[in-house]
């Protein structure tokens, strides 16, 4: 998920009033999406058992969900143009709650598959609508507030994973587990309110249309290193988020109550990492931060792959979240600086790497897991995450000279 950066609008009073309310509403939607994704990810083994689905079938459903999310982003964009972001994001979050209920009470595999596709469509619509709203809110603040939204997403994921673990330990069947999640997501949706904001100044001045700025070939060449790092980060993210619960349950013999703890630890690591990332970047610089984050993530994923039992995997997953947490916001910030006059246009292209990374991570890891080789999947992810170490030099302020591209 991306939002605009590089704003030059003057800061406004943000402690109260419609601007603060708009920020809280957007953060609530991020939290609702994080909780919904966690609900699906942490119930994979239970849903597979309930519906009699093979690991390969669950992998196919995960890929279909991701493809549906891509389609949902285009549908959401069309809806935003016809209506407004707040209406669309509220409706999309309510749709995710309905999709969770449909998965929970699906009478058969076909219905459950349709519910997963509906869930993916709703996630894509949330992405485009909430980021449109965040872009407006950020311009009013006059500074990047991206990390706070990611933190809300991750914190909600932790809470949802712990909810799955808690109610599973009580012996609840998956139908009731997903129903509890759906109720939480629906409640968050109902708290979202619209807040009227004055028109924000565009980065190029009143009346300018930043999205019409032409992006030259040099910009695209400079975008690729950030896109590659983002792709790798989302391969890691989807590998841990989509399959850590199944890995703990199938390979490490964790119970259905303990299996979601790796997901919870991973998201907790991202919350901690994002809370301190800005300070670390100011002290060490983005290049050193990217390299350190990549190395930490690689070591942590190797630990997940080699874990002798599920408690070790939980600790390693938390360390992986700590490392990945810094990579995604740094990519977004660096890419947004390529064209301060058209950040939304650049970041929209950057988001393509996001979806590719999710597809690769979810598909490849699920395929390996279906054949009983989850350890290999995490080992491959550990090797891939070393790529940012080589591309970190592109993250220095001002980038590299054109001849270095």
UniProtKB/TrEMBL annotation:
It comes from the Bacteria. The chain crosses the membrane at residues 25-44, 56-80, 87-106, 112-130, 150-172, 178-198, 219-236, 248-266, 287-306, 312-335, 347-370, 376-395. It is found in: Membrane. It is a multi-pass membrane protein. The keyword Iron does not apply. It holds the Pfam family MFS_1. The keyword rRNA-binding does not apply. Keywords: Membrane, Transmembrane, Transmembrane helix. InterPro entries: MFS, MFS_trans_sf, MFS_Transporter. PANTHER family: BYPASS OF STOP CODON PROTEIN 6, INNER MEMBRANE PROTEIN YBJJ. This is MFS transporter.
């Amino acid at each position: 998920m991306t939002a605009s950066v590089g704003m030059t609008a003057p800061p406004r009073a943000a402690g109260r009033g419609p601007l603060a309310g708009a920020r809280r509403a957007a953060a609530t939607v991020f939290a609702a999406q994080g909780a919904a994704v966690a609900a699906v990810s942490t119930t994979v083994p239970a849903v597979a058992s309930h519906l009699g689905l093979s690991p390969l079938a669950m992998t196919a459903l995960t890929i279909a969900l991701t493809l549906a999310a891509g389609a949902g982003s285009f549908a959401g964009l069309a809806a935003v143009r016809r209506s407004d972001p707040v209406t669309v994001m509220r409706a999309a979050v309510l749709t995710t709650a309905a999709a969770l209920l449909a998965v929970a009470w699906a009478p058969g595999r076909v219905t459950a598959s349709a519910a997963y596709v509906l869930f993916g469509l709703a996630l894509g619509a949330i992405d485009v609508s909430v980021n449109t709203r965040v872009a407006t809110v950020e311009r009013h603040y006059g500074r990047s507030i991206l990390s706070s939204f990611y933190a809300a997403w991750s914190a909600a994921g932790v809470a949802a994973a712990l909810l799955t673990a808690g109610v599973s330990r009580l012996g609840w069947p998956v139908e009731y587990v997903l129903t509890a999640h759906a109720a939480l997501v629906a409640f968050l949706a109902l708290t979202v309110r619209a807040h009227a904001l004055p028109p924000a100044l565009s980065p190029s001045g009143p009346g300018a249309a930043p999205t019409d700025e032409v992006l030259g070939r040099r910009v695209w060449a400079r975008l690729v290193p950030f896109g590659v790092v983002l792709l790798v980060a989302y391969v890691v993210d989807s590998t841990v988020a989509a399959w850590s619960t199944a890995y703990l349950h199938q390979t490490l013999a964790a119970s259905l109550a303990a299996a979601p703890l790796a997901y919870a630890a991973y998201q907790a690591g991202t919350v901690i990492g994002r809370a301190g990332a800005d300070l670390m970047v100011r002290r060490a610089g983005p290049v050193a931060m990217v390299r350190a984050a990549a190395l930490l993530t690689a070591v942590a994923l190797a630990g997940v792959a080699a874990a002798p039992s599920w408690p070790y995997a939980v600790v390693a997953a938390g360390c992986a979240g700590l490392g990945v947490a810094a990579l995604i916001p740094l990519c977004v910030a660096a890419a947004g600086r390529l064209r301060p006059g058209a950040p939304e246009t650049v970041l929209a292209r950057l988001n393509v790497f996001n979806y590719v990374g999710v597809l690769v991570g979810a598909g490849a890891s699920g395929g390996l897991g279906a054949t009983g080789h989850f350890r290999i999947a995490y080992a491959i992810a550990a090797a891939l995450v070393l790529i940012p170490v080589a591309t970190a030099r592109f993250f220095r302020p001002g980038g590299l000279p054109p001849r270095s591209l």
